[in-house]
Each structure stands twice: as C-alpha cells, then as structure tokens.
Write a structure and sequence with these properties.
The protein is mainly β. Helices cover 8% and strands 46% of the residues. The chain has 2 helices and 14 strands, in the order E-E-H-E-E-E-E-E-E-E-E-H-E-E-E-E.
Length: 177
C-alpha cells in the first residue's frame, strides 16, 4: 500500500511473520546529510488495520532495520549508533536506547544470538566510491551481542577485495558480504 506521508524515503525494511512491517525513512534531501539533521523516521505497517504510522522519529539517517517479536534494531550511520527499541504488542516502539556506538553502520542481519552489520568507517572513501565505483572504500563487518551490548570486528578489508560492503550474513559457517 502506497502512503507518501509515511513512506517518503524508504531505505530498508523488516517484516515479521504476522505481516507487520518496519521501514526506515532516511533523508528528505542532501541538506539533511550536510547538516547532519536528525530527521529520519521508522514507519510501521499494521496489516490488520491496513495502515502505516510513524513509530520513531528524530533519528540521524536511519538505515538498516531488523524487527523481531520483542525488539526492533536500527542503525544510524550519522548518529554512529545501533539502537534497540522494545516492541509493544500493538506494534509501537518504546524509547530507543543505544545498543553500541558504531561509525557508519549499515544493514542488519541476525546470526544466532548476534547481529551482523557492515560499517563504513571512512566517510571520504565511501563518498569517493559512491561517485566512482572503481575507487575502493573499506569494508568492515561487525558482530554485535545485543544482550551484552558488545561489538567485535569479524572482517576488515581496505576495499580492494570488497568495496563499501552494505550487508553481511553467515550461512552454513560461511560469511557472505
């Protein structure tokens, strides 16, 4: 269902088995980036009501999102954070809290008790790569323990092997980036 009031700049989404959807709206324009505005939102789709609503706002470039039955995780690359929200039975979210500080965090996936995210530690290399894909940007994959609020790099590369990684997952013991 289209809804330009609640879906104004979708970046990532996460769906639950119930059909509920959480989606990040990242920026309204380049000015949000340049001024590092906390203008992003998390939108929620309630399949029973057939409606979207905003369940969190004031985020610094909301990016990756991972919804689970009891929590919703979101990355904010400009806020240098991975946030955790308690998820209420009606789909609304409690107050967000910083799970870990992490520069340039991107998309999120689950691996057992851990979250995986990629991160862009070098802003200038990432911008050069965005303008010209032949220019490398470092790739970092971080493993986050959301219960202990710890993070650990599990893959680091200068960008020559894999440039500007956006998503990582582990399947059958192998890391895919």
């Amino acid at each position: 269902m289209e809804d330009s009031r609640h879906l104004w700049s979708p970046n990532d989404l996460s769906a639950l088995e119930t059909g509920e959807i959480y989606l990040t709206n990242d920026i309204r324009g380049n000015l949000d980036l340049y001024l590092r505005r906390n203008a992003s939102e998390i939108a929620y789709y309630d399949p029973g009501a057939g409606k979207w609503s905003i369940v969190a706002d004031g985020l610094a470039y909301a990016n990756g999102i991972l919804a689970e039955n009891d929590r919703v995780f979101v990355t904010t690359p400009l806020g240098n954070q991975v946030l955790a929200y308690d998820r209420n039975p009606d789909g609304t979210l409690g107050k967000g809290r910083t799970l870990v500080e992490l520069k340039g965090a991107d998309n999120l996936t689950r691996y057992g008790r851990y979250l995986l995210t990629t991160a862009h530690f070098d802003d200038f290399a990432f911008l050069r790569h965005a303008r010209d894909s032949a220019k490398p940007s470092p790739s970092v994959v971080m493993r986050i323990d959301p219960d202990r609020e710890l993070r650990k790099a599990i893959y680091v590369n200068s960008g020559n092997a894999i440039s500007a990684a956006s998503t990582a997952l582990i399947h059958n013991g192998k890391l895919y980036i």
